[in-house]
Amino acid sequence: MEWNARWITTAxxxxxxxxxxxxxxxxxxxxxxxxxxxxxxxxxxxEINGKPVTDTVLNPGWTAYTxxxxxxxxxxxxxxxxxxxxxxxxxxxxxxxxxxxSDEGTIQTKLRDKPAAIxxxxxxxxxxxxxxxxxxDETWTAGxxxxxxxxxxxxxxCDATFVPPPALPAVLCDGPTDTLIPHQGAPVREQGRVHAxxxxxxxxxxxxxxxxxxxxxxxxxxxxAHAGDVVDVSFAEVLDREGNFYTENYRGAKCRxxxxxxxxxxxxxxxxxxxGFRYIxxxxxxxxxxxxxxxxxxxxxDMRRTGHIESSDPALNQLLxxxxxxxxxxxxxxxxxxxxxxxxxxWLGDIQVFARATCMNFDVxxxxxxxxxxxAADQHEDGYVGAVIPDVWTxxxxxxxxxxxxxxxxxxxxxxxxxxxGSIGVLRRQFPSMKKWVDYIGTVTTTPGLxxxxxxxxxxxxxxxxxxxxxxxxxxxxxxxxxxxxxxxLVVKAGRVLGEDVSAYERLYGEIxxxxxxxxxxxxxQTECVLAAHFRLAEDPQKTADLLAEKVRQAGSQLQTGFVGxxxxxxxxxxxxxxxxxxxxxxxxxxPSWLYPVTRGATTIWEHWDGVxxxxxxxxxxxxxxxxxxxxxxxxxxxxxxAGIQAPEDAPGYARIRFAPQPTDRLAWFGASIDTRHGLASxxxxxxxxxxxxxxxxxxxxEVVLPGKRLSVPAGSxxxxxGREG
Length: 726
Ligand code: BGC
Description:
The chain is of the alpha+beta class and 726 residues long. Helices cover 25% and strands 29% of the residues.
């Protein structure tokens, strides 16, 4: 985009302190319209005469910074008076925080050493038609402010008593200009407020407040204080076995919240960093705590809730709630693995497995479409896609090649957005990136038609992992080739939708399937069975699904799948006649299962099935997030198999619907709805004395498939079917 303002910085690098840039200006005549366009290296809060210019937060958001930096446009007409001051406070944000990058030479190690800087352009259009433009230059000042420390992982220190020395003139500096783009992401906002449920003293004698819900966001304190009094708080997701406050799983993230009060009653809220937490420990607080002293402020990107699931089983309902909160907590501008420890990165494997469920829970076309453009921007010329986007580790290449099931987000996520919303624009934009990814695999594999000879995360966290490893026992080459086939298939399908010539990919797909069958006639693990059957690579998918059922039963009706097998295991079982076993797995309450964490009081999805073990201990200190959405992928099965609401591939965006519910007599009733782009689709079944009652509402023409029945239903109907045969 065209950009005429200069970048400015401080005379001296302020390190982790958040500088305040400022400019006074007069509006000599009545102002008809005022627009502020700006961006920063870091995250910023801009105010005119002490009032924020927007209710969105954490601007300019997180993008593939070396290729794309978003510029925001704010209508500030209502804030302009005769005498004005524009101030901009800049924290390190994503741009200048370490973001788990210690290796020199990565993108992030270069970005994080840059000083805080902004570029801005304020346009005042007067009532008489005259236009005045104020741009960042040396007439601005840059000084210290009350935020004495600001960083993404390590939190914030704010001193409300701080008296800043006189600010110095700002200094012109180099900053990105040819990579500036108009803001694309879904706005990030404060989306809700959660009040404390209770406060208590732990066995260790510490005062802890429980918000009753794990969430991501800011923390607001309201306090009566004397100048110099301190509010100091720590954050945690869980309590340990003894009921003590537990922070070890935040690893290196210090998550500080240290506020030095001014005199009187005051309210303070962090705005330049965020925290993932359920509990806070009050390390220092002046006077006595009141129930409303602290409020948790939920922050995430704008997304409309579209999916609902409810059943007669409260534990299942809690599971869905956990999935929804997991999505909220990890959709802060970029889809992340977790929101709390020193990670919070756009891990591709995580969003790849969660993509379909994500698109049903909320309308996330806007959110994912911006992130996919970052993926394409950070994709290398040869098609390599990093494990995280924005690819803060790019040029690191320490693993030599991209990982299957992580890099495949390049094909799978655009396809899921297309399926859920019929967004042809997203598919068209991503198509070159999708093809490049598949082409890339062909250049790194050591065996044509298979993906062999490379390192992969594979069935990450599979329970059949050998001792000491995070990787399940499924063979790398089986997992990688299965995804090679799936990505190629998606390029073929996307190309057909777009009217592209995909004959070369059709041939390649045939070759991969043939090579897979020849190389891998047998499947050793649950996940290998899942992939071979689900992607229809096995010679006999039915036999493979039966083998899966057998393996699950042999394991004591337990799943052993990790990231790669878990999203599809229930689908394979229910698609091939083992729906009852699928239900048994879903409703199982003992470890390992989706409901086990619920029995332990989870309010979000855990990274590990045994984040808290049955004996109350933790499975690990360093890889133990309690807000990791990946296994929440199971929501997709609940909508599309349990309730049976399906968008056929030739009717993306639910332009036509197939209802094929799979009831179980383990529940009294189960229902789901999706507010599609065409209207509300819902399906609910209830156990009756002589069978089932099915209630179906469809906004579009639908096919209904019930036990022993198949019929067409016109658009806009609400129908019910009852009886022994359905
Ligand atoms: C992250 C994951 C990610 C994985 C890949 C972890 O540290 O939290 O969710 O996908 O690494 O290895």
